[in-house]
User: Fold this.
Amino acid sequence: MPNIGNLVQFEYYQQIFAPRPESDRLPVSFEDWEARAREKLPSAQYWYIAGAAGAGDTMRANRAAFDRWRIIPRMLRDVTERDLSITLFGRHLPFPVLLAPIGVQSIIHPDGECGAARAAASLGVPFIASTAATHPMEDIAQACGEVPHWYQLYWSKDPELTASFVRRAERAGYSAIVVTLDTPMMAWRERDLEHTYLPFLLGEGIGNYLTDPVFRSRLAKPPEQDKASAIALWTQVFGNPGLTWADLDWLRRHTRLPILLKGILHPDDALEALRHGVDGLIVSNHGGRQVDGAVAALDALVDIVRVVRGRVPVLMDSGIRRGADIVKALALGASAVLVGRPYAYGLAVAGEAGVRQVLRNLLADLDLTLALSGRRSVAELDPSVLALAP
Amino acid sequence: MPNIGNLVQFEYYQQIFAPRPESDRLPVSFEDWEARAREKLPSAQYWYIAGAAGAGDTMRANRAAFDRWRIIPRMLRDVTERDLSITLFGRHLPFPVLLAPIGVQSIIHPDGECGAARAAASLGVPFIASTAATHPMEDIAQACGEVPHWYQLYWSKDPELTASFVRRAERAGYSAIVVTLDTPMMAWRERDLEHTYLPFLLGEGIGNYLTDPVFRSRLAKPPEQDKASAIALWTQVFGNPGLTWADLDWLRRHTRLPILLKGILHPDDALEALRHGVDGLIVSNHGGRQVDGAVAALDALVDIVRVVRGRVPVLMDSGIRRGADIVKALALGASAVLVGRPYAYGLAVAGEAGVRQVLRNLLADLDLTLALSGRRSVAELDPSVLALAP
Amino acid sequence: MPNIGNLVQFEYYQQIFAPRPESDRLPVSFEDWEARAREKLPSAQYWYIAGAAGAGDTMRANRAAFDRWRIIPRMLRDVTERDLSITLFGRHLPFPVLLAPIGVQSIIHPDGECGAARAAASLGVPFIASTAATHPMEDIAQACGEVPHWYQLYWSKDPELTASFVRRAERAGYSAIVVTLDTPMMAWRERDLEHTYLPFLLGEGIGNYLTDPVFRSRLAKPPEQDKASAIALWTQVFGNPGLTWADLDWLRRHTRLPILLKGILHPDDALEALRHGVDGLIVSNHGGRQVDGAVAALDALVDIVRVVRGRVPVLMDSGIRRGADIVKALALGASAVLVGRPYAYGLAVAGEAGVRQVLRNLLADLDLTLALSGRRSVAELDPSVLALAP
Amino acid sequence: MPNIGNLVQFEYYQQIFAPRPESDRLPVSFEDWEARAREKLPSAQYWYIAGAAGAGDTMRANRAAFDRWRIIPRMLRDVTERDLSITLFGRHLPFPVLLAPIGVQSIIHPDGECGAARAAASLGVPFIASTAATHPMEDIAQACGEVPHWYQLYWSKDPELTASFVRRAERAGYSAIVVTLDTPMMAWRERDLEHTYLPFLLGEGIGNYLTDPVFRSRLAKPPEQDKASAIALWTQVFGNPGLTWADLDWLRRHTRLPILLKGILHPDDALEALRHGVDGLIVSNHGGRQVDGAVAALDALVDIVRVVRGRVPVLMDSGIRRGADIVKALALGASAVLVGRPYAYGLAVAGEAGVRQVLRNLLADLDLTLALSGRRSVAELDPSVLALAP
Assistant:
């Protein structure tokens, strides 16, 4: 089987002999995907994806943290065959990459989450379905097929609703629950306020609620007849700023699936999570979308990996743009990474096909960067791969 | 009572259902307010506000100092209710924010200081009235109503005039005297020299003088009849570069109000201030408007908080633009912050309503950043909130 | 004999009295040569030269590393006569500079490698002929005349072909073999993928293969009759990701020429190379074209020089743009430097004459920078010349 | 006597009542002077002044070094009267500022050096006349009147010519000899090569030679009759790359004037200078015009002041643009600073009046920055004024 890096390169260069029509050409670089998405989307939708909290300071810090680490490639190590696969919660994954949960994907393309999930599944990449997805979680699960998929939980103020979500996720075949901690409420996102754009209030991204038996039972009339009341209820139950560590024990009792906490940035919170028996951590600042001025995710990763000492997998997101970023995150101790905006731009530009292309490119880039760094597998990515820039 | 962050967000998003006319839309980000102010104001007036001393080096340093500190948010801490209030000099304030003294506000909008003070008061935010205000201090005090308001003193060469200002401030109900130390004379402000624009010489911003009985007693004719002579006298008495620490004792004898010193940047000056019995300090470089090349205010804050050891409140200004900046300043030991240019731009763009909007946005941003950082009150903001960027 | 710096300056200023026609004027600064090349070349060709792997991060890091070191010039040291010469592998070279191997030079100018080699030889500068050159190595060797020239080897999967290349290089008079280690496969070069431009698939840059008896013996029909099959074979045999250190011993047995390894970035690889008896090292990240995020070449040089301790010459490339860069590299322990993009831009703009002009300028700049730093010879360039910027 | 800062401010603001015609307005900021000079001068002339060696790296480093130091202003120190004066070589100077030697000033304005010298003298500021001045040193000396003026020596290969220059300088009333060490030859100045512009070859800036009896005695015909031969001779005798420390003793024997060495950047060269009995040092990298990549002058100053330990005055130039820069240089131990490009731009824009305005502005800025930093005199500028930026 050819390595994905060589395969994707080969396919690109095959176009020398069989050129695609100009209209069919997709961007290559992250910056070009972003620029194309900006052209294609209305301003409000574009900035809902591209924007960040406050001044965007954290979003920039995320990137700067990657730039401080330099790869020191090794030579003459026979990198003919590379193995990018990892094992997470007993499942073999072909790549150390998952698609991060992003809500309301249909505002950027009709293919929405199901399209993105199909694209991911076609490459064996797990999709993490957001509670705020446009499509109900059951449809997304189906789109993922046999490829592992995880369910991201926005923990509702209504415990029965939360329990219902978890129950449905289990039944739909999701193999892990990702609890997002950093969004008990929306942050101060200046671009969205400027556009007065909150898609949920327009009835977008609340499909999981509208189809939920508990949620429906709270409504006087079914949402098909009175959407406004359904939306109003949604605003009341969506998040839960009152959650504390003790609530995790409640969740633990409600599911046998692995539980991961997403949004951990402080080592002490990582240790607290271990004490509560969580199965994994996702170091993340939500792509800079929640706390403006927050620590860069990669910097937090280093501190958290140090205290976790391998007891549970530590994943990370926020700032992954290219193969070298993944190499750096894994070398610093991440078990896998989640990718967000890159695939959202792919979706915006070309729907499912766009997501697939973005992902194939990223994996090819990762494969080649790994090989050219003189490593053959994810296991060979340890801190010796890196040096801090002077 | 809803938290201000959620409330302001709610009001923004209500516009989805009841959109405001385009002409009625106000900016959200600091940069957009600034840009709109620039469009709206004549160049000389805009630069009088936006400009700084010399090359603007200190103004940039003020911002860079904030960027060096990163917030490390904590999770699962029940942030349903936040309390942003503080107590300063025995008064309860709903927010750790005051409006910095800015002179001649009528050059940017007819609402002037009274408009800005009303906007602040509507949110319970103290207004600090500048000696160089357009409106007499008595009118501003009235605009503040029951909300605490402080009087900023430019200490005149004429001691009787200074005493008169302090006396009037006490009578008008100001509850603290803020002595600005860093402006015994105007700095080298290149933009203003370029525009040859000094509003005071045009009779702007000297309202407190023209209405003062001592000042009037120094004039041969009342200023209504001979404004030129009044302005000439103003140039002679405005500031006092001859002041020394000993003069503080004189002021101490002339008022029972708390005295704060504004413009302290060196720890030794902070200690000297304590020896002279001042009641509070405001660490400030006047927004970069006085000494080009001066230390960043946030960096000075750290050194000064260390030596003051809680004996008096230490406030700070110079560079506060967003909620995260306030979180950082408070975490590093500031008791409260003063906001300057942001509200001046609000005033320029939309008068009183603009100031109110700028302030509400800033407080909402602060509230949400606090909550999403896992803190419920100002008391929970201590150095553990932060890490230096690597 | 005049020093080259004074000579070139003199010739420039002679134009005051005998001005060249505008159309005849060549750029001076690196940035201007690059800009002119960009105007002149089609986009695909330009970016094939100017582009880098991934985000171009390594290419920028290469430059930033030079900026961190500052020269401390010494005064009053009689710098009337400078000697820029060095001795490498027993050969006297007039300058510590070689032309780096660059493939497919005919895509940028019909003069191609032979033109570049003639330009270099006219100044006594060694040319390193790339395996991927357009012109067969025998022609390039002839263009170099008596000036030393080295052969750069892309080690083929086909050992007989590799052996044939080495044999031909020896016969053609090359005096060293440079094995490029960092390119067992093409990196993820986004600009080339965007343009779907890989010149080799168009039959460019495989002249050394098409003329090779071993390569030809592998083909059913001679390439003159069936180029497509020849290209297809090329794609199969070009690189060899399976190489290991042990393979060096095979090469050692196949040639008595000095062997240099190009692409060494880790001190441990440098030591391993010494254990395998190589004769020299070239610290290089291929101008940022292979591993995005890789360590800056100059930073790697420092670490490698430290462990090699003078046992073999350590050359470097990746980022050399001006005389000061060469001074810094030599002061940090490089025996000589290789120059890449600068001469490629010269070739693009004006063919052989452009390469010559770029090179003369660079050497003049080096000579003057050396003299004005108070040094008379390459031997006087040691770490005392430099200080790290604070 | 009013302090210059207040005086200049006053004069600017007087224009509110007596506005100057637009055409009469001069720039204020360094950047605006530079921009105006660029508009006014032909490209070759502009870049002869504004350009630097190589990539301009040193010129940027000069500025960055100032930005690393922050002033910590002190309050309440009675700064009513400031004294900017210093004593150098027994002469009282009203300001710690001199005009740096700049050659060929008539290429930028017909007022040339005499105009610049008159402007400086009108403020009591010493002018340092360049050997490469357009006007003969005797005329410049006359323009300086009673104000001290120094002679800058480009040490010729012809010792009798050098001796003649020194003799003439003494007779003309110059009170110090400044030997520029860093220019035994012209550096690689890319902009000048691009324009093929070397004013000396056009007969500019060699007035001191053409009027010199020794120089004339070397010519077959007087330069009035055969300028080409005079220029040719100039190119042969101008600089002297063969100078060594021993030659200083020769100079010492030829003059009783204080000798300063300009261009010292290494502490060991400073110590060597002391051993040879020089009377002062000028730390300088020639404004970045000689060694691209050289250490920033301010960084070199710190190291040199440390070893000189007050035994001779240490002056500095290279990067001084505003008052804060002078405060920083003096606080770090400089006895005085030289200003170059700023006054050249003044000359380009408005001749003598432009130089005077640039200088008055700079001194006003210095005075105000000193006062607002809480210092009353140059003597109060010591390292306690500064902190390194974190």
